[in-house]
Design goal:
This protein has about 200 residues and is mostly helical. The chain has one domain. The chain is built from 8 helices and no strands. The longest helix is centred in the N-terminal third of the chain and has 38 residues. It is elongated and about 75 Å long. It starts with 6 loop residues before the first helix and ends with a helix.
Length: about 200
């Protein structure tokens, strides 16, 4: 598999966001600026920043579900007994009847189960991917991108959690952030695809 089913959709969402930013900027810089935009520039900047990070987090959640679906497909085809795995993972502990399930092994994580673990922060993402058996810290691309992506997420967090005014962010910065995040998604996607059939 060369990419997950979600990658193109999120790349397209980033492209549309870049178009909206460009249109907003043109209206602001026109001979007769759009008053709504002119009077609320900071609101638009903050909104664009929040949206681009929301896309990142949503992509991570969707793409990791592809891994879970792939693992479940493999487990289903191999017919591994749930009880055998449960028992051997903690063989020193007594295996009680209440621990028994007479079914095939299956990963029962759902999208909503990932909510507390999903973060745009690349260091938290690295820790979550580790739980999926994906070593992001072995990726040259990830290592070269993690600090800049983290700085974008930190800016978003300041907006969301501290009502930062984001006055230091220009529309050019926003477009640069989108390009950085699109590239980051593509590289995360490559790492995920290495681990699925």
């Amino acid at each position: 598999m060369d990419k997950t089913v979600y990658l193109d959709s999120y790349i397209e969402q980033y492209k549309k966001l870049a178009e909206i930013i460009e249109t907003t900027n043109k209206r602001l810089l026109s001979d007769e600026p759009d008053k709504l935009i002119e009077e609320n520039v900071n609101f638009f900047t903050k909104s664009f920043l929040v949206m681009m990070c929301a896309y990142l987090e949503s992509y991570i959640k969707d793409a990791l579900m592809v891994v879970i679906d792939d693992v479940n497909s493999k487990l289903n085809s191999t017919k591994i007994p749930h009880n055998l795995i449960k028992w051997t993972l903690n063989i020193e502990k007594e295996f009680k009847d209440s621990d028994s399930k007479f079914e095939q092994l299956k990963i029962k994580l759902r999208k909503k189960d990932l909510d507390d673990y999903i973060s745009g922060n690349p260091f938290k993402t690295k820790d979550l991917f580790k739980k999926f058996g994906i070593q992001l810290d072995k990726s040259e691309n990830f290592n070269s991108q993690k600090d800049i992506v983290n700085s974008i997420v930190v800016k978003r967090n300041k907006v969301v959690h501290h009502n930062d005014d984001a006055s230091d962010i220009s529309n050019k910065d926003l477009n640069d952030f989108i390009e950085i995040l699109k590239n980051y998604l593509e590289n995360l996607d490559k790492e995920i695809c290495k681990h699925i059939s």
